[in-house]
Design goal:
Layout lengths: L2 H5 L5 H81 L5 H28 L4 E4 L5 E5 L4 H11 L11
Antiparallel strand pairs: 1-2
C-alpha cells in the first residue's frame, strides 16, 4: 500500500470521503491528460468529419443563390416588359409617336422624297432650255423658249406664205 493509505483508516467515514475526493481529483487529472494527449487526434478527426458537411452546405448555399439570381432576373425582365407595355399605352393615349410609328413615318417620307425627285427630274427635262425672266418683285415677267436649229427651220417654213405655181399656157 502506499503511504497515504497507511495514514488513512478507510473504516472511518471521513477518511472514506477524503479517499473518494482524491480519486475524483485523480480521475479529473487523468481526463485532462487523456484529452491533451488525444486532443489533437480528436481535433483532426473532427475536422475531417466536418469537411463533407461543409461541402454539402456550400452546395446548398450555391443552389439557393442561383435560384435567387434566376428569380431576380425573371422579376427584372417582367418589370422591363411591364414598363415598356405601360409606357406604350400612355404614349398612345397622349397621341405621342412610338419608335415603330417613327420608323413607319420615316419609310413613307423616304418613298415620297424619291417620288418628288422623279417628278422634278421629269419637269426639268421637259423645260430644258426654257428661260424664265423674273422681275425684281419675284414675279415671272417673261418666258423665253430658245429654238434649236431644226425647230427654227421648221418654224420658218411654216411662217412663209405658200406660193402657187403658175404654168405658162401657151
Amino acid at each position: 500500500m502506499n503511504q497515504l493509505a497507511t495514514v488513512l483508516d478507510i473504516s472511518k467515514p471521513i477518511d472514506r470521503l477524503f479517499t473518494a475526493g482524491r480519486n475524483l481529483f485523480l480521475a479529473g487529472v487523468g481526463a485532462v491528460a487523456e484529452v491533451s494527449e488525444g486532443g489533437m487526434e480528436m481535433f483532426d478527426r473532427l475536422v475531417e468529419r466536418g469537411k463533407p458537411f461543409e461541402d454539402k452546405q456550400k452546395q446548398r448555399v450555391e443552389a439557393v443563390v442561383e435560384r435567387a439570381s434566376q428569380t431576380v432576373r425573371g422579376a427584372n425582365q417582367l418589370l422591363q416588359d411591364t414598363v415598356e407595355f405601360e409606357s406604350r399605352g400612355v404614349l398612345k393615349r397622349l397621341n405621342v409617336m412610338t419608335r415603330e410609328d417613327v420608323k413607319i413615318l420615316s419609310a413613307r417620307i423616304a418613298t415620297l422624297s424619291k417620288k418628288v425627285d422623279e417628278v422634278v427630274e421629269r419637269r426639268q427635262a421637259a423645260t430644258m432650255g426654257v428661260i424664265e425672266i423674273v422681275s425684281p418683285e419675284g414675279e415671272a415677267a417673261a418666258i423665253v423658249i430658245p429654238q434649236t436649229a431644226t425647230a427654227a427651220a421648221s418654224a420658218k417654213k411654216a411662217s412663209k406664205p405658200r406660193q402657187r405655181k403658175t404654168t405658162k399656157k401657151g
